[in-house]
From TrEMBL:
<dbReference type="Pfam" id="PF01103">
    <property type="entry name" value="Omp85"/>
</dbReference>
<dbReference type="InterPro" id="IPR034746">
    <property type="entry name" value="POTRA"/>
</dbReference>
<keyword id="KW-1134">Transmembrane beta strand</keyword>
<dbReference type="Pfam" id="PF07244">
    <property type="entry name" value="POTRA"/>
</dbReference>
<dbReference type="InterPro" id="IPR010827">
    <property type="entry name" value="BamA/TamA_POTRA"/>
</dbReference>
<keyword id="KW-0472">Membrane</keyword>
<protein>
    <recommendedName>
        <fullName>POTRA domain-containing protein</fullName>
    </recommendedName>
</protein>
<keyword id="KW-0812">Transmembrane</keyword>
<keyword id="KW-0732">Signal</keyword>
<feature type="signal peptide">
    <location>
        <begin position="1"/>
        <end position="28"/>
    </location>
</feature>
<dbReference type="InterPro" id="IPR000184">
    <property type="entry name" value="Bac_surfAg_D15"/>
</dbReference>
<dbReference type="GO" id="GO:0019867">
    <property type="term" value="C:outer membrane"/>
</dbReference>
<feature type="domain" description="POTRA">
    <location>
        <begin position="269"/>
        <end position="345"/>
    </location>
</feature>
<dbReference type="InterPro" id="IPR039910">
    <property type="entry name" value="D15-like"/>
</dbReference>
<feature type="domain" description="POTRA">
    <location>
        <begin position="106"/>
        <end position="183"/>
    </location>
</feature>
<feature type="domain" description="POTRA">
    <location>
        <begin position="33"/>
        <end position="105"/>
    </location>
</feature>
Amino acid sequence: MIERLRRTSRLVLAVLAFLALVMPPAQSATSAPTVVAVSVTGNAHIPTDRILAVITTKVGDPFDPAKVQADLRAIADLGFFADQAPPIIKQRPDGVAVTYRVIENPVVTSIRFAGNKSVSADTLLALMDTAPGQVFNIKTYQQDVLKINSYYDKVGFGGQLPSHVTDVNIGADGVLTLTIQEGLTVKNIIITPPPDADPVLPPTLITAALVTKPGSPYSESQRDKDYDALKTLYEKYDLKIGDVEAGVDPATIDQKAGTADVRYTIQVLRVGAVEITGNTYTHDDVIRRELRLRPGMLVTDSGLRRDYDRLNNLGFFEKIDFQAKPGPDPKRQGLVTINWQVKEQRTGTATVGAGYSGGLTGTGLTGTLSYQQNNINGTGNGGSVRLERGSRVSDAQLSVTIPYVGKTEKSQRYSLGATVFTQQQTNFYPVYLGCVGSGGAQGGIGAPTTTPGFGATPSASIAPCPATGALPVALIPPDANNPNLVSGIVSTYKSRSTGLSTTIGRRLTDVYKVSAGVNLQTVAASADVPSGYFFRGDNNVLSTNCPLGTSVSLLGSSTNCGNSLSSAYGITAPSIAQINSNQNYKLRSFVFGVGADSRDDVFNPRRGVNASISDEISGKGIGSDFNYSLVTLDGAKFFPVLKNATLGVHGLVGASTGAIPTNKLFIFSDQELRGYADPAYGTEKLLGQVELRIPLTQDRKFSIVTFAETGATRIRGGVSNNGTQTFDLNKYTFRGDVGVGLRFDVPQLGLHTLRLDFAKGSQGTHTSFGIGQSF
């Protein structure tokens, strides 16, 4: 069809030849015949006037073959005619008559498209001026082709083909069919390998993710879809795309077959350089040693988040931010410079304070002087000194921590810590009566005549109190179901220890760490009760030699009055070492530990695990007066829940072997079981806690919590006897509580997470206060 539409341009030469045959020999311009008539034949739908309007040969003009030739071109330029026959030139008496003969194109009855897949027929039809009901016009059609090509270029198929309309045909029935080739068909997909690219992922994985497949047409829109697909793929593997170049490989274009290879050149983001700004006190190397994304490494979201968490966990900075910017080599699009921006905060805390706690179990008036610095001279090393003195307390402690030893990568896998301390403390504990009934104390010291459980017929499980003389008591109730707490009477427990502890740690990874330590201590302890009361002697023998009316030492010199802390507890247990009153003991032990810490924030974790297992071993072979082993398994896991809350689950198991000194007993205080004021002791310990932490501010510095917990202790092999019945203390005794609490930070004082908890246990309610998260 295209060939037929181009015949008109060749008609001019034929007309010239025809005119040479029909015209008489050349004559002067003044003797040229006059045109007496101009007409058109062959047109059925195009008005004659429209054709005549472009014809320059007019009636009355001298006949000019050049004008006829121009007229033929002008008629052809109208575009409505598939062909023209040579014009008829007839001699008339008074001149010549010129008849132009045309062959009209068919009337378009419908327009169809073949080969279009990405662009709909309706869209293509809307681009065209040619429409059904019109005589097909080659000029209009040519403009339509230009519009179609322009549209395909606009939607991403540009630069691949000379024209996207490869053929046109109009049948005798007026059906116009345009054959479309939208773009080159993809023959092969090529992933540029290193060193010309850095795709990291294998080519098979990349091509499987692409929208473009062999056999499909290629376009810019297809390329954009591929970019989105590649971005999703690389994010799945925690990678970031730096640059993607994709397009037809010119060297592979086969115009005849309409195919070509498509090449993808992918550069993932890598660290080109690391910058640190904002630190004026903390040394650059202290910050850099925490960063794991270093030049040449792949940039990942998890890596950036991990480095942020590691800097935040130092506690040196009020604010941390980072920015990725191009460079340092602008020619390498896959390299970026990561700029860490920090704002430092106070890392040293000095405290001068005084306090008073009255009552039988109070500590009296105390004064405290302390100083703690977590970033000495910007080196990241820490130290603290603490002095406390009061009527019942005397403590002194000096600690040093070096989280990274040396300057080399190998040496910085190690950490050191050491503490020198001396402690003396007096505590008062309630006591429990080991008998029922009424009794008196010699010397007029007011032993009560009634206590809880008194005034009734003595139970079969508890011996009656003597009518006169001292009353037997213990720090642990002989019968848990009938505690018989003595009102207004307490035992005085005194302890002192002086020593040194050191620890060396070894990082296996950023999460796992092993440690080993040495404890060198001198310990002593004693306990007594007011006169009128006494602790049972060894082997549960009631003393006949204990002086009445005077203070009786539970660890005193009288064997019958009891010479060990077992007597004070009112129990017999091979798991508790015998400690005589006012005698110094050497405590030497090794401590080995393995820990894992993947918390995102050590002060206020949102996710991660913090778990450890430790074993403290003491034996006579290392110069200790004690033979024991203490094993503790402690683990917590944190889950992000709801919108920004955290669910924490904590479990602890403590176990021992051998005979442990009383200052090594596991203890439950109101920091662990927050619904109870009185502590619980044991040679074994179980604890389970669940806590939901809900922040009330965006910076998570103020939050509320709800919690539930349960715990139990037991004394391995322990029994107690009230004179008539023996009680088994080898079984775990559980108690639990539920409660709510508040958490808030005081950054001005360098304090993270102050705790105030309100809990309800089986014995009532209790309020506790602490520093740091409960776990």
